[in-house]
Recover the amino acids of this structure.
């Protein structure tokens, strides 16, 4: 997956917090004779710091704002209301900055920070999308994140089904591409534990209008899901009929077993055709060949032609 996602890694955010609307609508400094002089001075300090756009000044304004609220926040007036709103927006900006920085530099930390974000904003589709993408891109490095990726991908699909959308589908190009990879993420992380469920999601990934449709591991995983799910289930059902007098029920069941195996062979063939790395092609071919031969009189005749024409 590394090569597939290398262009999707999110660029680091700028180290500034742009809050121009707040800067334009600050409450005027309270008149000294009408307010506590200490409150007036502290508010003016906040206004001065907030008015400067460099990160250090913005951070200083944040700290001053918190001090102002700790001292005067129990009495609600226009100044307290304004400072409270600005501090809250800065906290969100700081949270998002830390999360996006972690996405680029420390994936486990990004997942840790996301738990806090989603606890307060469980329907934040944008966060779910970023978690799934970076999780897939780093799956081989952080296998412990598999369950988190699965849960976030399923939740993202639920949100989309409920009509949730985003202005930009970053880090994906558009909605179709996002849906393809979300379905892929669920399938890839359930293929071992629930192969038939995985197959249903991987089929959607293969049918999506996006890169997941041409991703070889989509089909490699799908072949395994068919094999370990539908095929094994039907083969177990057919076992009592083996070596017995042929019956219509047994014949019908054997046909279903054969069709399930054919679906697995077809998926593996697609994976081979799409893989560019000969070593990866060999891995899948070695896996697929015994099943192909079992369906063709213990011969691999025609296998190469089948792979060449499968797409």
């Amino acid at each position: 997956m590394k090569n597939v996602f290398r262009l999707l890694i999110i660029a680091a955010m700028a180290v500034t917090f742009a809050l121009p609307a707040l800067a334009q609508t600050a409450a005027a400094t309270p008149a000294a004779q009408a307010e506590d002089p200490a409150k007036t001075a502290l508010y003016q300090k906040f206004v001065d710091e907030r008015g400067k756009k460099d990160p250090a000044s913005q951070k200083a304004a944040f700290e001053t704002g918190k001090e102002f609220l700790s001292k005067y926040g129990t009495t609600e007036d226009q100044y307290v209301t304004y400072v409270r709103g600005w501090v809250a927006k800065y906290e969100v900006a700081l949270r998002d900055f830390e999360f996006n920085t972690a996405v680029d530099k420390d994936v486990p930390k990004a997942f840790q920070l996301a738990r806090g974000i989603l606890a307060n904003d469980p329907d934040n589709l944008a966060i779910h999308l970023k978690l799934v993408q970076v999780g897939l891109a780093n799956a081989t490095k952080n296998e412990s994140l598999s369950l988190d990726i699965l849960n976030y991908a399923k939740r993202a699909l639920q949100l989309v089904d409920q009509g949730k959308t985003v202005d930009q589908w970053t880090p994906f190009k558009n909605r179709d591409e996002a849906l393809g990879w979300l379905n892929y993420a669920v399938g890839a992380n359930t293929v071992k534990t629930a192969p038939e469920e995985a197959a249903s999601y991987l089929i959607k990934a293969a049918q999506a209008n996006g890169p997941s449709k041409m991703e070889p591991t989509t089909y490699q995983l799908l072949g395994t899901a068919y094999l370990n799910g539908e095929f094994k289930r039907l083969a177990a059902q057919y076992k009592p009929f083996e070596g017995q007098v042929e019956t219509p029920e047994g014949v019908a069941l054997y046909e279903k077993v054969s069709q399930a195996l054919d679906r697995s062979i077809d998926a593996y063939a697609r994976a081979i055709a799409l893989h560019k790395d000969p070593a990866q092609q060999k891995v899948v071919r070695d896996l697929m060949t015994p099943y192909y031969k079992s369906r063709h009189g213990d011969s691999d005749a025609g296998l190469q032609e089948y792979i060449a024409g499968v797409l």
Observations:
- The radius of gyration is 28 Å.
- The chain has 14 helices and no strands.
- The CA atoms of residues 227 and 309 lie 22 Å apart.
- The mean pLDDT is 88.
